[in-house]
UniProtKB/TrEMBL annotation:
UniProt similarity note: Belongs to the SmpB family.
Database matches in InterPro entries: SmpB, SsrA-bd_prot, SsrA-bd_prot_CS
GO molecular function: RNA binding
GO CC terms, sorted: cytosol
Protein's name in the database: SsrA-binding protein
Pfam families documented for this protein: SmpB (PF01668)
Entry-linked CDD domains: SmpB (cd09294)
Region (Disordered): 128-159
Organism: Aureimonas pseudogalii
Basic and acidic residues: compositionally biased ranges: 132-159
Gene Ontology annotations of biological process type: trans-translation; trans-translation-dependent protein tagging
Taxon lineage: Bacteria, Pseudomonadati, Pseudomonadota, Alphaproteobacteria, Hyphomicrobiales
Transmembrane segments: none
Length: 159
């Protein structure tokens, strides 16, 4: 069963800097344990995962430092905006992620939060390795070169 591609409309939060600061080794889709007010706040599209990360504790994967703003209509039944959120992954995936973090010094970085075709909030989680300064400079050079290439192709090679 093929996974439907995420479109721009159903992506709630995107960690755009992750691909610059980290070399992405592997990605997987994880569910999230959310309260009702968190889901409603996510549907408004104001969540932030730029400074967040995931960690394995006591046999469970947790999303730490993600920000889901309070849902204003919930009054006193609201959630805490920066609370730890449990991620739902299969046991085999959890063991593989925990092993990669412990053995190889990898990091679990959230890439985006989106709603799938069933309307459930999902998190795209990446196993990543941190880039050092020369790698980041190389990424910038490659990005600038691709931009110049596109500009030349658009102009049709005219000088």
């Amino acid at each position: 069963m093929a996974k439907a591609p995420t479109t721009k409309s159903n992506v709630v939060a995107d960690n755009r800097k992750a691909r610059f600061h980290y070399e992405i080794i592997d990605t997987l889709e994880a569910g999230m344990v959310l309260t009702g007010t968190e889901v409603k706040a996510l549907r408004l599209g104001r969540a932030t995962i730029a400074e967040s990360y995931a960690t394995e504790e006591d046999g469970e994967i947790w999303l730490i430092n993600s920000y889901v703003p309070e849902y204003l209509q919930a009054n006193r039944f609201n959630h805490e905006p920066k609370r730890r959120r449990k991620l739902l992954v299969h046991a085999a995936q959890r063991n593989r992620l925990a092993g990669a973090v412990q053995r190889d010094g990898m990091t679990l970085v959230p890439l985006k939060i989106y709603f799938n075709e069933q309307g459930r909030a999902k998190l795209e989680l990446a196993v990543a390795k941190g880039k050092n300064a020369p790698d980041k400079r190389e990424t910038l050079k490659e990005r600038d070169w691709n931009r110049q290439k596109q500009r030349v192709m658009k102009e049709g090679g005219r000088d």
